[in-house]
Amino acid sequence: MPLEKNLLSIVVPVYNEEESINETVNRLQKLRDNLAHEIDVELVFVDDGSKDGSLFYLRSVAEQNPNVKVISFSRNFGHQIAITAGIDLVEGDYVAVIDADLQDPPELIADMYRMALTGFDVVYGKRRSRAGETIFKKATAATFYRLLNYMCEIDIPPDTGDFRLMSRKVVESFKQLRERHRFVRGMVPWLGYRATPLEYDRAERFAGETKYPFRKMMAFAINAILSFSSKPLTMAIHFGLLTIFAGLAGGAYMLYLKFFTNTLVPGLTAVLLSIVLFSGVQILLIGVIGEYIARIFEEIKDRPLYLINETINL
Ligand code: UDP
Ligand code: MG
Question: Minimal CA–CA distance to 92: which of 64, 118, 113, 61?
């Protein structure tokens, strides 16, 4: 009796990738052929509201290949949401996520799958190096992962991205996390289960430009911290306590001057400076609280995470 083969679903978020999508599809098709005797493979492209020819191209590929599937959004919802939609809708026993720009070599998914078979529920790509990225991007990325780990209760492995493979068990658990501000590479470690890294060298973008310019990268980083940690609020309290102690010490010193010496309390400058400084700090901390309230507001509206305009072969 022939055993039913497992299915591996490969989820690929796509946003304006017309310059690399053709090559990405080819490399993934090749990967599927190489894995054919071990596992069935389906390719699921999530078009995140591309404004270029990406969707048009994907549609034509899907028309000829029933195992190439397309989900297309009604507009751009963002990378993390696109990944989520893919994970939500595929049926594979294993699900891999890979970017469309070929920075993560598709061939490694075969290694990830084989590693998973040795008893792991998550195999995540860990970047040993990153080609073609500016020193600035590398430095900000390094700082970011370290800061994030300091801020969060769970361990998010440094230098990982969304390139990973998960078992059905992990996927089902992941699907239960419905928060809007999503940071997938932190949510998966939060789930637990047995995970292992697969080290690799990150390649240059095949073509086109990064969709994460500095502004978006900062937003991504701040979002990750705010949605994963309430430590900024705790830090605010610590800072408040510290200033209270400093104030008490200063007060004691002034009382001492008043009662036991003839010196008047000096320093109008010090008074003005501390007023200006601490008003700034207060406004900043109110802003931090505001960010959390904004998140509560976003979550409580309970809107769908994404809207699908069209699916092909799904
Ligand atoms: N992407 C997306 N929606 C977006 C931005 C990006 O689906 O709003 C996709 C993009 O097509 C790529 C992946 O997410 O497949 C990662 O984007 P990018 O390569 O620009 O990020 P970087 O590697 O520079 O961090
Ligand atoms: Mg990229």
Answer: 113
Regarding the beta carbon of 104 and ligand 1, being less than 6 Å apart is answered no
Residue 123 structural domain: 7-211+305-312
* H-helix or E-strand spanning residue 208: none
If asked whether residues 286 and 153 sit together in one domain, one would say no
Instruction: Give yes or no for a contact between 74 and 308, defined as CB atoms under 8 angstroms apart.
Output: yes
Quote the Cα angle for 165-166-172, to 5°: 150
Judgement on whether residues 187 and 272 belong to the same structural domain of the protein: no
Q: What is the pLDDT of residues 125-177, one digit of tens each?
A: 998 877 777 788 788 888 888 888 888 877 788 788 899 999 999 999 999 99
Cβ(210) to ligand 1 under 6 A? yes
Is pTM, for the whole model, over 0.70? Answer: yes
Closest ligand, as measured to the CA of 212: 1
For ligand 1, is residue 212 a contact (CB within 6 Å)?
A: yes
